[in-house]
Amino acid sequence: MVDQYCDAYRDLFPEVRTFENFKHLHAGMLSDVKRKSLPEIAKAVGLHDAQPLQNFLTNSPWSVVALRDRRLELTLLMLEGRSFKLVIDETGDKKKGKHTDYVARQYIGNLGKVDNGIVSVNAYGVLGDLTFPLIFLIYKPRKRLEVGGVYKTKPQLAVEIIETLLKIGFNLDLVLADSLYGESPTFIAVLSKYEKHYLLAIRSNHREFSLPDQEAKYGVWQEFERKFSDGKSEKRYIQQINESESRLITYWRITTDANNLPKNQTWYVQTDLKSDMAVKSGNLYGFRNWVEYAFKQGKNELGWADFRLTNYQ
């Protein structure tokens, strides 16, 4: 499997030994090694030590940008023009010390709290039951910027990702993201500019619900079955907020318990999808949570948190 995957990139490596180490690194990441550090990967693939892998990551003549572009090119060919849902989400991992570029004390999603670590903004597609990675960009905190570096917020990084995907030719039919992006006027303006539908989380105290002299009005709860990728389903409830047929954007509350509204199981979203799509909207937003959870598990299995890197180019 590793050979078949790697062969699609063979011509991007001017040296045979560089290509071999590229394969070794992937084989090690897919192995059952618990800690995916370079020394452990070297042992798993039969290398005498980790020096060849270290040289591959630091000194070998290859381009991560060219590699990424080839992967996206192959993904585009696989899709054959089909549209898909785009999920935008940031993720973080704990890192000790400050040797890794852009590590800082910040909110780490993998831990669910503020800690010392690194964060990236990620985009992945959903087509039916298939989830596939697209682009990620490292979030660079102001205090860790290199000389001459330009600070970009996470929504700005997400905009950069979306514009890159559209330029390449990917066909996005819906964008899903959490409240960090749902509360960003810049992010929403870009989606509107490119006429891309969206379903975005918002805070429970969203500005639309707290206008002067106007209280939020809640519609009738509608029950629906939240369908999961394994074929199972669970009962959910969805309710429109500030109902109006003339609105281009509609607001919804989704929960597992309409009577008690448990904090960790109640979501507020906004969408430009038509308001008669209530049940469909509830299931569509579930994709984001599903992909976020699956991505976290996959990332941990591949050992993302075990690497310490400098110079991300």
Description:
- This protein is an alpha+beta fold and 313 residues long.
- The chain is built from 9 helices and 10 strands.
- It has helices at residues 2-7, 16-29, 38-44, 51-58, 64-79, 154-168, 179-182, 185-193, 278-302, and strands at residues 84-94, 104-108, 113-127, 130-138, 172-177, 198-202, 222-227, 233-241, 250-255, 266-271.
- Strands 1, 2, 3, 4, 5, 6, 7, 8, 9 and 10 form a 10-stranded mixed beta sheet that branches.
- Helix 2 packs across helix 3.
- The longest helix has 25 residues, at 278-302.
- The radius of gyration is 22 Å and the shape is elongated.
- The protein starts with a helix and ends in an 11-residue tail after the last helix.
- 27% of the residues are buried.
- The model has no long low-confidence stretch (mean pLDDT 84).
